[in-house]
């Protein structure tokens, strides 16, 4: 099998990483490194999503990296990476613009350790501050489920009785510390960009960080009714906050899909449309988009 993979480049592209990851479990190998556009990045050897994409293409979320670069331009500012994983969106902007202060939040222990390794390896400046925390509406220690393979799908664990469509019932459960964003000693200097990708915890992030997030000039937040329902959150908290604090925006396909985006519209138009998906998409984990919200009709990125 290994010889066939090495001799056939098409097989290597399609199955090489999967074979290497499966073999690593037999050999007690727990960590891989891959070289790419942002430097040498490390992740757990069962990372079949983010590091695999980086190993195979040399990039991860290139649309977001370009959006951040355009947003900050030549100035400084603040980037809040809420759901930082191993640093694939924090590190590129920290590398290209040392005047941007980055705050990276990642609660899962293995991801957080690899986040620290990647920052140390690839960011010579000291413009990233990390927090091994989950952001929530209250300070508490809560159960947290670990996804095998897609290490970007770790999430808080709440029993809601809804059908599990992504093997959630078989996942390992750990505990993580949760805090309110508004209670953290974060110093914002404009412009401020917040990325929020927390696998359904978004309503809780907004509830506990409304004061801080209201200072943002732009927010990119994942909208997934399935994941929010799994955590028992109220999706309308997200939409109401965006209506109250942002005038314009657009609906975008996430980087995990095609990275395409719709036209710039008023925030009220967007939120009205998305309210209809709260019920329509609740039982389908594959129905999700990003919302890009700004305080100006002129959207950068």
**How many structural domains are formed by the residues?**
1
What name does CATH use for the topology? Rossmann fold
pLDDT averaged over residues: 93
Instruction: Output the CATH class name.
Output: Alpha Beta
**Individual helix count:** 12
Domain Methyltransferase FkbM: 81-244
InterPro entries: FkbM_mtfrase, SAM-dependent_MTase, SAM-dependent_MTases_sf
Keywords: Methyltransferase, Transferase
Protein name: Methyltransferase FkbM family
Write structural notes for this entry.
By secondary structure, the chain is α/β, with parallel strands linked by helices. Helices cover 35% and strands 24% of the residues. The protein has a single domain, classed as 3-Layer(aba) Sandwich (Rossmann fold). The protein has helices at 2-7, 9-26, 50-57, 62-72, 90-96, 109-122, 202-208, 210-213, 225-230, 236-245, 267-275, 277-280; strands spanning 31-36, 39-44, 77-82, 100-105, 128-131, 134-135, 140-146, 155-156, 172-179, 192-196, 218-223, 248-252, 265-266, 289-294. The strands form 3 sheets. It has an 8-stranded mixed β-sheet with strand order 5-4-3-10-11-14-12-13. One of its GO terms (biological process) is methylation. Residues 81-244 form the Methyltransferase FkbM domain.
């Amino acid at each position: 099998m290994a010889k066939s993979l090495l001799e056939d480049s098409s097989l290597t592209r399609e199955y090489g990483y999967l074979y290497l990851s499966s073999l690593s479990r037999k050999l007690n190998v727990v960590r891989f490194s891959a070289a790419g556009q942002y430097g040498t990045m490390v992740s757990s050897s069962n990372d079949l999503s983010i590091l695999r994409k980086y190993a195979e293409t040399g990039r991860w979320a290139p649309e977001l990296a370009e959006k951040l670069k355009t947003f900050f331009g030549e100035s400084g500012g603040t980037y809040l990476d809420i759901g930082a994983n191993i640093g694939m969106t924090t590190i590129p902007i920290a590398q290209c613009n040392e005047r941007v202060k980055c705050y990276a939040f990642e609660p899962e222990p293995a991801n957080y350790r690899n986040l620290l390794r990647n920052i140390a390896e690839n960011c010579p400046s000291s413009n990233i501050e990390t927090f091994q925390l989950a952001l929530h509406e209250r300070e508490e220690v809560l159960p947290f489920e670990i996804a095998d393979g897609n290490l970007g799908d770790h999430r808080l664990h709440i029993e809601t009785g809804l059908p599990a469509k992504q093997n959630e019932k078989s996942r390992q459960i750990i505990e993580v510390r949760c805090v309110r964003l508004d209670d953290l000693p974060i110093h914002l200097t404009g412009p401020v960009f917040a990325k929020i990708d927390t696998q359904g915890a978004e309503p809780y992030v907004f509830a506990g960080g409304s004061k801080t997030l209201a200072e943002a000039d732009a927010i990119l937040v994942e909208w997934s009714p399935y994941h929010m329902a799994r955590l028992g959150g109220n999706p309308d908290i997200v939409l109401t906050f965006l209506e109250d604090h942002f005038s314009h925006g657009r609906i975008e396909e996430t980087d995990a899909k095609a990275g395409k985006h719709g036209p710039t519209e008023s925030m009220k138009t967007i939120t009205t449309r998305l309210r209809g998906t709260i019920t329509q998409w609740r039982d389908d984990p594959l129905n999700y988009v990003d919302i890009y919200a700004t305080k100006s009709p002129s959207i950068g990125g």
